[in-house]
Amino acid sequence: MAFRVVLVDDHQVLRDAIKEILVRHPEFEVVGEAGSGPDAIDACRRNEPDLVVMDIGLPGINGIEATGELARHCPRVRVLMLSMFDDEDSVMAAVRSGARGFVLKKACATELVDAMRTVVRGGTYFSAQVSDRLLSGVQSGKTRPQAHPGRDSLSPREQQVLRLTADGKSNKEVATLLHLEVHTVRSYRKSLMAKLGASNVAQLIQVAVAAGLIDTAGTKPAGGPGEPSQPGD
Q1: d(Cα 232, Cα 179) in Å, to the nearest integer?
Q2: What is the largest CA-CA distance in the chain?
Q3: Which of 5, 146, 154, 206 is deepest in the core (most CB within 10 A)?
Q4: Looking at residues 191-208, what average pLDDT do you find?
């Protein structure tokens, strides 16, 4: 039985090129495609793939954030990053989000297929240049967890959700403002609470203010009379 694959890139021409490569490798079957982070999550929920080949630079939510969402909602899926970015921060963020491999877009077709085979079978694969970035990140201590992450440890989208939540916006309102699905906003709030060690929205805001992640000016209190302290719609 072939391994089921979902291809995620905002350029159709690249997805078509990968499909053309995989035609010569019947052990892989492309069962879905997506051009944005939210669509990638939906495609994986619908198709239950074994492997996702994921770009980083995606509209909606980026590939790193989408990989983190898949780790929560589709934990069986293995993710291989395929990106033009090879900076240390991107590589370390991809690993922290749950990616099992990282290959550069300039790689040859043989390397891409080898990486897919390795990752889908439970291994890890990093291009030589990416391995150097990963080693630099380990040596500089970037893999060490922080009790209360600073602003740079939150993704730009997480920071947006945090600020809007602190302003008293509901999940539905945040989703509308950021052009996201409500379930995606719920996932961001859960991720923020896990990162900041909070058990509800009121505590999330308190911890965020104390850590200097958001300003107190204009912040509305959460969990007041008649207002739920848990993430609502």
Answers
A1: 17
A2: 63
A3: 5
A4: 77
pLDDT digits (tens, 9 = 90+) for 81-97: 999 887 777 888 888 88
Report d(CA 103, CA 93) in Å as an integer. Answer: 14
**Locate tokens 């669509």: which residue?**
39
Which residue, among 123, 142, 46, has the nearest Cα to 80 in the 3D structure? 123
Q: Does residue 215 contact residue 230 with C-beta atoms inside 8 Å?
A: no
Distances, alpha carbon 11 to alpha carbons 7, 16, 34, 92, 188, in Å: 11, 9, 9, 24, 26
Q: What is the pTM of this model?
A: 0.62
Over range 39-49, report the average pLDDT: 94
Two structure tokens written together for 193: 């609470």
Residue 232 identity: G
Q: Name every residue whose Cβ is closer than 8 Å to that of residue 192 and which is 6 or more positions away in sequence.
A: 154, 158, 161, 162, 165, 198, 204, 208
Residue 153 has what DSSP assignment? Answer: G
